[in-house]
Automatic annotation (TrEMBL):
GO terms for molecular function: UDP-N-acetylmuramoylalanine-D-glutamate ligase activity. SUPFAM superfamilies: MurCD N-terminal domain, MurD-like peptide ligases, catalytic domain, MurD-like peptide ligases, peptide-binding domain. Pathway: Cell wall biogenesis; peptidoglycan biosynthesis. This is UDP-N-acetylmuramoylalanine--D-glutamate ligase. The gene is murD. Belongs to the MurCDEF family. ATP binds at G109, S110, N111, G112, K113, T114, T115. Residues 107-281 form the Mur ligase central domain. It is found in: Cytoplasm.
Amino acid sequence: MGHIVILGGGESGVGAALLAQSKGFSVFLSDQGKLKEHYQDQLRRQAIPFESEKHTVSEILKADEIIISPGIPEKSELVQTIKKQGIPLVSEIEFAARYTKAKLIAITGSNGKTTTTLLTYHLLKEAGFNVGLAGNIGQSFAKQVMDNSFDYFVLEISSFQLDRCFDFKPDVAVLINITPDHLDRYDYKFENYIHSKFRIFQNANTQTACIYWGDDEVIQQYQDLIPQAAQLKTIHFGQQAGAANITDDAIQFAFGQIERATAPIQGPHNAINMAAAVLAATEAGVSWSDIQANLGSFQNAPHRLEPCGNWHGIQFINDSKATNVDAVFYALNSFQKNLILIIGGVDKGNEYDVLNDLVKSKVKGMICLGTDNAKLMAHFGDRVPQILSTDSLETAVSTSMQWGESGDIVLLSPACASFDLFKNYEDRGDQFKATVNRLTHGS
């Protein structure tokens, strides 16, 4: 059958190893980091050879094909060596898709892809569809392909995963938006990142529904990258011809409309996400009556505009997943009231000008939370009535309680990565929620 090497022993890598072995390949897994014990146990149980905390290049180069973790940089010496040898490098998504007959709904975008993926999955599952959730979220796609007989998969796909997809052809492909992100991975060329996102459409044909936000200027510019034969389903604000039209009051489809005031997720960005999810679900065969019945019970992912406490009328919102400026732009757009914004972390080359007007009109106080807040303080110091720099989450939350009054919203929406003070954005969000709970409890 051939020999497959897996680089990276996280959820997707171990799942790919298990699937590859079940299909008759000989398998070797290599991780430069420390493999978690439960993953080591899974590999041992199946007698799959692996190495932890090192890459033995001579072993890796024995591969006929290599399944690579999306976290391993393209520029790494190991990847360059593999490329010189001409060994194919693919993602877990590309590999696993070969072994399923399930209908695939694949969703990507710079912001909102998790919300859209979870909502699409919710609409299929609640309608009684036999559906799995995978990709950049949940359990390994490969492992689910091996273990389960799902008829449908809803997949959240990152640009890093798409970079190593070649024959992957979803039945429904969704591109929500494209804004600058991860440019350090793409030679600081926005165009490279754009081409990466458009790979979700690269194999589309007459059977493929391609859903995208038609008002996105970047998508408009590069629309020619979508194969002409595909079925194009666009989302627009206003009355321009499209599969979904968003007005101030409603999201309108050919088959009905959703009132925005009573929708389970709020804000203009979430109107786009809802439109995309509803279109994807209907393409998969979910009825409008089922969508109407089940939309209201949707709960968004943790760390994405997640309410996490109320103290004397001050509401606390955890938006720790907002790791770039555009995500914060969407968050600020979701609220009308006075905001106390907690922002900061590891800056990925952010440009904050896009936030200026929203900050000036909505933010009554800004707390910069990070080990180096100089750039934020310099940019926003004259644009907000009060501003504080701290590297203490406790100080950030207690200060927001002092500044706030009934009707205010304290919003953690950092615009930055979390690695200066936290393990990841989940850890940052969890610690924020715990600190809010502790400081407001019983007060």
